[in-house]
Amino acid sequence: MAGDRAKGEAIDFDSEQEMTKENWLDADGVFETLRTYENLPFALGLHLERLERGMREIGIFGTGRRLIELEVAKELLGNSNTSGHLRIVVSRNGGVEVTHKNYQPPTSSLKCLTIESSIQKGFSYKSTDYQERFDLRELAIKRGLDDVILFSRDGSLIESSTCNLIVLMEESWITPPLSSGCLPGITRRLLIDNFGVLERKIERPEFNSARAIAVTSSLREIQPIEEVDGKVFSNSRETEVLKTQFHSWVLGNLAL
Which residue of 95, 108, 142, 254 has the fewest C-beta atoms within 10 A of its own C-beta? Predict the structure, then answer.
């Protein structure tokens, strides 16, 4: 996939240009990225809850939710897209920046490598201090791959550089617990609450025997991983069924 992206395609930080040249990454603050369908944002309320949690944790108190909602509405009105990527950034000084760009979801699967994580802790929100994660993504890209899969020093699965993971073991989809240090992703939460995805620790030997693996995020929804460290994982029927079911569910629940 790394060599097949359309110019300017925004895939939740997959674009090298987006990784290295976006001014918003220089800000000290919090952010959210979410998908829009026919110019309607999916799960805006859930994303704003997480954004507000991050604002409280880093000490941003002067920016109210109503102001953010108004900025979102204004941006959607001024930059309408049938399929869009909505980003909300709140800097430490209380400034709000909202952008809405055309977004085409990925159609191919990912090739990844695994590494021991050097990231010391996970956050309960999305911090604009993402450079270390982008450096890890760049490591994979330089090797002709798409992303990295992070394991803790004790050998348990965490996440990819910017996305949560789900792993098909026997008949059940599993995702690492928040105690692993992974981000409490919105899509991850919805899959647990509504699609029977189980939350538990996954050790490397068990991961290596998985039937299927996929990343999850608000932009990608569910994207299969086809190869890890040279080992091929087939795109299982279960992956396609879950992708289809989740996408249909999203379209019926945009107002979350």
Answer: 142
